[in-house]
What we know:
The protein has 357 residues and is mainly β.
Amino acid sequence: MANPNNQSARFLGAMVLCGALFGTAAQSQEISFGARRDFDTGGAVAVASGDLNRDGVMDLAVVSGGNGVSVLLGNGDGTLQTAVRFETGRLSRGIAIADFNGDGVLDLAVAFSEYPPKYEGGVSVLLGNGDGTFQAARSFRAGSYSISVAVGDFNGDGIPDLAVANLLSNFVSVLLGNGDGTFQAVESLPLLTGSSAIAADDFDGDGQLDLVIGDRSTGEFSVLMGNGDGSFQPQRIVGAGARAVAVGDFNADGRPDLAVVNTVSGQVSVLLGNGDGSFQSAIRFPIEQDSVSIAVGDFDGDGVQDLAVANGVRDSISLLLGNGDGSFQPRRNFLAGHGAAGVAVADLNVALRPTVA
């Protein structure tokens, strides 16, 4: 149903922050953005992109922070259609997009939790109809205060599974997919503390997906190596500073690397992967002290991965252009919307340069 809330949400440096910025790059690696464009979503804490109506144009799905997700279909020229809101669980926070029932249509998975005092959490799965609309949400339980969700095939059966970070539970929740949009009973992976950020990749090159977990309360992040059957090895702490985490290949060696946001120190730590599940010592680059989200993209078209960081209090996005060797140029800030809370990268104007949303 249409979103009746007239609050202005923002698309940009924070998944849902003010509008979309369209990048143009010169040979000197200078990058600029056009005028910001704002789109109403009734609030926003997270954003993800995908072709939700199969028209070849990227669309946005924005989590409001309440009990809904707003879908804005792209027009292909950098503008978006009016948001349509779909109900999810309460206190929705994180979002991921994949085809959970194998029909060739993208679906949504939204991490949520109930209100205090219990904060019982889980994932709302909304199966796509292929036209940008979605079926009623079906919820699957996870831990307490589920806040972030990652998608991957953790048991090698070709079906997408879910891994959920729970802020108030000392475990990560893994839900193995059945291939019809439903999930098996949750498996709990023990942690030392709760978790607030999660991502999946193959860090040791064994063909099995692994997990990287961030905990903003302790400021530590860790990895859990996958066994390929949906189970994981014990948590191994990798470093400090973990408000948000992203995976990329920042030195073009074919091995996944980590970029981790530390809100307190105002830095992003880059850890180059060794390809065996271990990482080199962190290289730190200054950002803002209110940074809350991070995404990877090539914003200047040089074939090298760059970073985009959302700065909530400063209402901006910081771009750090990559040098191709794992180092980055000094940040360049671009004005976003009020309270930039998340950032995603997509080509909303069917151009050669990615758009920050």
